[in-house]
């Protein structure tokens, strides 16, 4: 019988360490364009679809508004996005990319491919890992609803 309290038998530890490693590998590429990893994630959500609410972005990134708001403020200070209260409901804050925010996508476009090359794993392995991670994350969403 396996000792379930042994570090080598844990699922969470290699995922935690892997997450840290991958984010660390992003750092030099993101430094070149002046972003942190969480800021990059926010911009990726907005590059897919501009003009989203804070809640919509938070839902996609699994972040609450208390974590997301400071990120959005910093991106606004960098003139990459604008935060604006909805004219329909003042409680809702809408996020829009600026021209600089849209233009930054061109500079960031090469980052995913660079990471794939650095990780030295196949596209199939990446897809498999992503599918398993998404399966676990989707089960979290279902249990919270």
What does this structure look like?
- Its main location: cytoplasm.
- It is found in: Cytoplasm.
- Keywords: Cytoplasm, DNA-binding, Transcription, Transcription regulation.
- Pfam families: Staph_reg_Sar_Rot.
- InterPro entries: HTH_MarR-typ, MarR/SlyA-like, Transc_reg_Sar_Rot_HTH, WH-like_DNA-bd_sf, WH_DNA-bd_sf.
- The chain is mainly alpha-helical.
- It has one domain: Winged helix-like DNA-binding domain superfamily/Winged helix DNA-binding domain (Arc Repressor Mutant, subunit A).
- 66% of the residues lie in helices and 8% in strands.
- It contains 7 helices and 3 strands; from the N terminus they run ααβααββααα.
- Strands 1-3-2 form a 3-stranded antiparallel sheet.
- It is globular.
- It starts with 11 loop residues before the first helix and ends with a helix.
Topology:
Layout: H1 12-32, H2 37-48, E1 52-53, H3 54-61, H4 65-77, E2 81-85, E3 93-97, H5 99-108, H6 111-119, H7 123-144
Antiparallel strand pairs: 1-3, 2-3
In short:
Keywords: Cytoplasm, DNA-binding, Transcription, Transcription regulation. The protein has helices spanning 12-32, 37-48, 54-61, 65-77, 99-108, 111-119, 123-144, and strands at residues 52-53, 81-85, 93-97.
Q: What brief labels describe this structure?
A:
145 residues; Arc Repressor Mutant, subunit A; 8% strand; DNA-binding; MarR/SlyA-like; HTH_MarR-typ; MarR family transcriptional regulator; transcription
